[in-house]
Design brief:
Length: about 210
């Protein structure tokens, strides 16, 4: 009985000693020729563009399949403005309510935070809504009416489930026929798992206990 209790307590201890390595991915959306912000991964924009970074796969889509990569200096700001100078945007098409979807797969069980950047120089300063959730389900509103020149962050960590496809949607609120995003920081924290060292220790302990019997 004593041995069983000892083993149980050691096992619980092993599962509590964890590896909680957060993965932070930073994307700079733009053309293949524009500067990449220090510490960011270049994401060359086009409709359907896909890139896998740190094991997470990002795919760009839009409602009307009309995403373009562009660059335009912010008024009054010095070049090169590496993060915000370039961006993904939908094409003016005469129909309001455009949106860009960034689909994300390969996420673990855990939590996620993000900051999305919406700086660029457009004559239209119409707001965008930022939504996030499982693709195909009702998306949660992260920010209502975010204007040009702002960034939007999650207020608190969002729970995520392995195997799901998540959608970050940038939805135009107005009639500029334009949705856009210039950069994205993604901070992923997996649910703690037992460390390999702890597992090896457990295996060794059970071997010792079996030999003593
Ligand atoms: Ca850039
Ligand atoms: Ca709104
Ligand atoms: Ca950019």
């Amino acid at each position: 009985m004593y041995r069983k209790c000892l083993l149980l307590s050691l096992a619980l201890g092993a599962f509590a000693s964890t590896s909680t390595q957060a993965a932070i991915v930073k994307l700079d959306f733009g053309t293949g020729a524009t500067n990449v912000e220090t510490g960011y991964s270049q994401f060359v924009v086009s409709e359907g563009a896909m890139d896998t970074i740190s094991g997470y796969t990002f795919t760009l889509q839009s409602r009307d399949a009309d995403i373009v990569a562009s660059n335009k200096s912010l008024a009054g700001a010095a070049a090169p403005q590496d993060l915000n100078y370039d961006y993904a945007a939908t094409t003016f098409n005469g129909v309001g309510g455009n949106y860009i979807s960034i689909l994300i797969t390969g996420l673990p069980d855990g939590t996620l935070d993000f900051t999305a950047y919406f700086d660029y120089n457009s004559g239209f300063n119409l707001p965008q809504d930022v939504l996030f959730g499982v693709q195909g389900e009702t998306l949660d509103l992260i920010a209502d009416n975010a204007f040009r020149g702002t960034s939007v962050s999650t207020g608190s960590p969002i729970n995520i489930t392995a195997g799901e496809t998540y959608e970050l949607r940038i939805l135009e609120q107005g009639n500029a026929n334009l949705a856009y995003i210039s950069g994205l920081d993604l901070d992923v924290v997996p649910i703690p798992e037992p460390t390999s060292t702890a597992l090896i220790g457990l295996a060794g302990l059970s071997l010792i206990l079996r030999r003593k019997r």
